[in-house]
Specification:
Chain A is mainly beta. Chain A contains no helices and 12 strands. In chain A, a hairpin with a 7-residue loop joins strand 10 and strand 11. The radius of gyration of chain B is 13 Å and the shape is globular. Classes of the chains: A mainly beta (113), B mainly beta (111).
Chain lengths: 113, 111
Protein backbone atom coordinates (compact mmCIF):
# COMPACT_ATOMS: atom_id res chain seq x y z
CA UNK A 1 0.00 0.00 0.00
CA UNK A 2 1.13 3.54 -0.68
CA UNK A 3 0.96 6.52 1.63
CA UNK A 4 2.36 9.99 2.08
CA UNK A 5 3.29 11.96 5.20
CA UNK A 6 3.76 15.69 5.02
CA UNK A 7 5.83 16.52 8.06
CA UNK A 8 4.64 20.10 8.54
CA UNK A 9 1.03 21.22 8.51
CA UNK A 10 2.05 24.87 8.37
CA UNK A 11 5.21 26.69 7.25
CA UNK A 12 5.78 30.42 7.61
CA UNK A 13 8.64 32.18 5.81
CA UNK A 14 9.74 35.72 5.06
CA UNK A 15 9.66 36.95 1.50
CA UNK A 16 13.00 36.32 -0.19
CA UNK A 17 14.02 33.46 2.12
CA UNK A 18 14.13 29.75 1.19
CA UNK A 19 11.12 27.47 1.44
CA UNK A 20 11.32 23.79 2.42
CA UNK A 21 8.28 21.52 2.48
CA UNK A 22 8.96 18.01 3.69
CA UNK A 23 7.34 14.84 2.35
CA UNK A 24 8.01 11.19 3.16
CA UNK A 25 6.35 8.38 1.27
CA UNK A 26 5.72 4.68 1.59
CA UNK A 27 5.42 2.52 -1.50
CA UNK A 28 5.70 -1.13 -2.41
CA UNK A 29 6.82 -0.37 -5.94
CA UNK A 30 8.86 2.24 -7.77
CA UNK A 31 6.66 5.23 -7.09
CA UNK A 32 5.64 8.23 -9.11
CA UNK A 33 5.63 11.35 -6.95
CA UNK A 34 3.99 14.72 -7.46
CA UNK A 35 3.59 18.08 -5.80
CA UNK A 36 0.36 20.02 -6.34
CA UNK A 37 -0.40 23.58 -5.21
CA UNK A 38 -3.79 25.04 -4.30
CA UNK A 39 -4.16 28.80 -4.13
CA UNK A 40 -7.16 30.20 -2.21
CA UNK A 41 -10.45 29.52 -4.00
CA UNK A 42 -8.68 27.77 -6.87
CA UNK A 43 -8.32 24.18 -8.02
CA UNK A 44 -5.14 22.21 -7.50
CA UNK A 45 -2.38 22.72 -10.06
CA UNK A 46 0.53 20.37 -10.79
CA UNK A 47 3.86 21.90 -9.69
CA UNK A 48 6.16 19.04 -10.66
CA UNK A 49 6.39 15.26 -10.99
CA UNK A 50 8.96 12.50 -10.57
CA UNK A 51 8.50 9.38 -12.69
CA UNK A 52 11.84 7.47 -12.46
CA UNK A 53 13.94 9.79 -14.59
CA UNK A 54 16.28 12.39 -13.02
CA UNK A 55 16.08 12.48 -9.23
CA UNK A 56 16.15 16.29 -9.12
CA UNK A 57 12.96 17.58 -10.65
CA UNK A 58 12.33 21.17 -11.63
CA UNK A 59 8.83 22.52 -11.69
CA UNK A 60 6.96 25.72 -12.34
CA UNK A 61 7.45 29.01 -10.47
CA UNK A 62 11.03 28.18 -9.40
CA UNK A 63 10.18 25.11 -7.31
CA UNK A 64 12.17 21.90 -7.36
CA UNK A 65 12.12 18.58 -5.53
CA UNK A 66 14.62 15.81 -4.98
CA UNK A 67 13.71 12.13 -4.91
CA UNK A 68 15.79 10.26 -2.31
CA UNK A 69 15.01 6.58 -2.37
CA UNK A 70 17.23 5.76 0.63
CA UNK A 71 15.33 8.27 2.76
CA UNK A 72 11.93 7.70 1.09
CA UNK A 73 11.61 11.45 0.79
CA UNK A 74 10.50 13.94 -1.85
CA UNK A 75 11.02 17.38 -0.30
CA UNK A 76 9.96 20.53 -2.15
CA UNK A 77 12.19 23.61 -2.13
CA UNK A 78 12.37 27.11 -3.51
CA UNK A 79 15.41 29.36 -3.01
CA UNK A 80 13.50 32.61 -2.55
CA UNK A 81 9.85 32.84 -1.50
CA UNK A 82 7.47 35.27 -3.12
CA UNK A 83 4.21 36.57 -1.72
CA UNK A 84 2.38 34.68 -4.48
CA UNK A 85 3.70 31.37 -3.07
CA UNK A 86 1.23 31.59 -0.19
CA UNK A 87 -0.96 28.53 -0.77
CA UNK A 88 -1.55 24.94 0.30
CA UNK A 89 0.81 22.30 -1.06
CA UNK A 90 0.08 18.60 -1.44
CA UNK A 91 2.56 15.76 -1.87
CA UNK A 92 1.11 12.86 -3.86
CA UNK A 93 2.29 9.30 -4.52
CA UNK A 94 1.24 6.65 -7.01
CA UNK A 95 2.90 3.27 -6.94
CA UNK A 96 1.06 1.46 -9.69
CA UNK A 97 1.00 3.95 -12.54
CA UNK A 98 -2.75 4.17 -12.33
CA UNK A 99 -5.48 6.39 -11.06
CA UNK A 100 -5.03 5.53 -7.39
CA UNK A 101 -3.20 8.58 -6.11
CA UNK A 102 -2.55 9.04 -2.39
CA UNK A 103 -2.55 12.66 -1.22
CA UNK A 104 -0.79 13.97 1.84
CA UNK A 105 -2.70 16.07 4.37
CA UNK A 106 -1.26 19.28 2.95
CA UNK A 107 1.12 22.03 4.09
CA UNK A 108 -0.10 25.60 4.30
CA UNK A 109 2.55 28.17 3.42
CA UNK A 110 2.32 31.76 4.57
CA UNK A 111 4.78 34.39 3.36
CA UNK A 112 5.56 37.40 5.52
CA UNK A 113 6.43 40.70 3.90
CA UNK B 1 -5.73 25.67 -21.20
CA UNK B 2 -7.89 22.89 -19.85
CA UNK B 3 -10.96 24.11 -18.09
CA UNK B 4 -12.79 22.04 -15.49
CA UNK B 5 -15.97 23.75 -14.39
CA UNK B 6 -17.98 22.87 -11.31
CA UNK B 7 -21.51 24.21 -11.43
CA UNK B 8 -21.69 25.66 -7.92
CA UNK B 9 -19.09 27.24 -5.65
CA UNK B 10 -21.26 26.97 -2.53
CA UNK B 11 -24.26 24.75 -1.78
CA UNK B 12 -26.39 24.45 1.34
CA UNK B 13 -28.69 21.43 1.63
CA UNK B 14 -30.85 19.76 4.25
CA UNK B 15 -30.27 16.33 5.72
CA UNK B 16 -31.98 13.69 3.59
CA UNK B 17 -32.04 15.73 0.40
CA UNK B 18 -30.77 14.30 -2.87
CA UNK B 19 -27.85 16.41 -4.06
CA UNK B 20 -26.30 16.65 -7.51
CA UNK B 21 -22.83 18.09 -8.07
CA UNK B 22 -22.00 18.73 -11.71
CA UNK B 23 -18.61 18.87 -13.42
CA UNK B 24 -17.78 19.65 -17.04
CA UNK B 25 -14.39 19.53 -18.79
CA UNK B 26 -13.60 20.98 -22.18
CA UNK B 27 -10.52 19.00 -23.28
CA UNK B 28 -11.93 15.64 -24.36
CA UNK B 29 -10.24 13.85 -21.45
CA UNK B 30 -11.00 10.18 -20.94
CA UNK B 31 -10.61 10.21 -17.17
CA UNK B 32 -12.66 12.12 -14.63
CA UNK B 33 -12.52 12.04 -10.84
CA UNK B 34 -14.46 13.15 -7.79
CA UNK B 35 -12.52 13.86 -4.58
CA UNK B 36 -13.52 15.29 -1.24
CA UNK B 37 -11.13 17.56 0.64
CA UNK B 38 -11.23 17.83 4.41
CA UNK B 39 -8.80 19.76 6.63
CA UNK B 40 -5.96 17.55 7.85
CA UNK B 41 -7.00 14.66 5.60
CA UNK B 42 -5.90 15.87 2.17
CA UNK B 43 -7.91 14.64 -0.80
CA UNK B 44 -9.73 11.31 -0.83
CA UNK B 45 -11.02 9.70 -4.01
CA UNK B 46 -14.76 9.03 -4.10
CA UNK B 47 -15.23 7.76 -7.67
CA UNK B 48 -13.31 7.62 -10.91
CA UNK B 49 -14.54 7.25 -14.50
CA UNK B 50 -12.31 6.20 -17.41
CA UNK B 51 -14.93 6.36 -20.14
CA UNK B 52 -18.58 7.16 -20.77
CA UNK B 53 -20.81 5.00 -18.54
CA UNK B 54 -17.73 3.42 -16.91
CA UNK B 55 -16.88 3.98 -13.25
CA UNK B 56 -14.70 2.65 -10.48
CA UNK B 57 -15.11 3.09 -6.73
CA UNK B 58 -12.46 5.05 -4.98
CA UNK B 59 -11.51 4.95 -1.32
CA UNK B 60 -14.74 6.41 0.13
CA UNK B 61 -17.70 5.64 -2.18
CA UNK B 62 -20.27 4.95 0.55
CA UNK B 63 -23.22 7.32 0.38
CA UNK B 64 -22.29 8.53 -3.13
CA UNK B 65 -23.03 7.53 -6.70
CA UNK B 66 -21.90 8.95 -10.04
CA UNK B 67 -23.15 9.35 -13.57
CA UNK B 68 -21.23 9.81 -16.80
CA UNK B 69 -23.60 9.88 -19.75
CA UNK B 70 -21.40 12.16 -21.87
CA UNK B 71 -17.63 12.30 -22.06
CA UNK B 72 -17.37 15.90 -20.90
CA UNK B 73 -19.72 15.65 -17.91
CA UNK B 74 -19.31 13.76 -14.63
CA UNK B 75 -21.93 14.08 -11.92
CA UNK B 76 -21.65 13.19 -8.24
CA UNK B 77 -24.89 12.26 -6.49
CA UNK B 78 -25.54 12.18 -2.78
CA UNK B 79 -28.61 9.97 -2.54
CA UNK B 80 -29.60 11.16 0.94
CA UNK B 81 -27.33 13.89 2.23
CA UNK B 82 -26.00 13.61 5.77
CA UNK B 83 -24.11 16.09 7.95
CA UNK B 84 -20.89 14.06 7.67
CA UNK B 85 -20.92 14.78 3.94
CA UNK B 86 -20.31 18.47 4.61
CA UNK B 87 -17.04 19.01 2.74
CA UNK B 88 -15.23 20.58 -0.19
CA UNK B 89 -15.79 18.50 -3.34
CA UNK B 90 -13.24 18.65 -6.14
CA UNK B 91 -13.66 17.37 -9.67
CA UNK B 92 -10.67 16.60 -11.90
CA UNK B 93 -9.98 15.32 -15.39
CA UNK B 94 -6.93 13.86 -17.15
CA UNK B 95 -5.68 12.07 -20.22
CA UNK B 96 -3.25 9.78 -18.40
CA UNK B 97 -2.32 9.51 -14.74
CA UNK B 98 0.49 11.99 -14.55
CA UNK B 99 -1.35 15.27 -14.61
CA UNK B 100 -4.79 15.98 -13.25
CA UNK B 101 -6.66 19.21 -13.96
CA UNK B 102 -8.89 20.32 -11.12
CA UNK B 103 -11.98 22.46 -10.86
CA UNK B 104 -12.12 25.15 -8.19
CA UNK B 105 -14.38 23.08 -5.95
CA UNK B 106 -17.87 23.06 -4.47
CA UNK B 107 -18.19 23.73 -0.74
CA UNK B 108 -21.22 21.70 0.38
CA UNK B 109 -22.85 22.28 3.74
CA UNK B 110 -25.48 19.79 4.92
CA UNK B 111 -27.63 21.13 7.75
Amino acid sequence: AQSVTQLDSHVSVSEGTPVLLRCNYSSSYSPSLFWYVQHPNKGLQLLLKYTSAATLVKGINGFEAEFKKSETSFHLTKPSAHMSDAAEYFCVVSDRDDYKLSFGAGTTVTVRA
Amino acid sequence: DVKVTQSSRYLVKRTGEKVFLECVQDMDHENMFWYRQDPGLGLRLIYFSYDVKMKEKGDIPEGYSVSREKKERFSLILESASTNQTSMYLCASSLGWEKLFFGSGTQLSVL
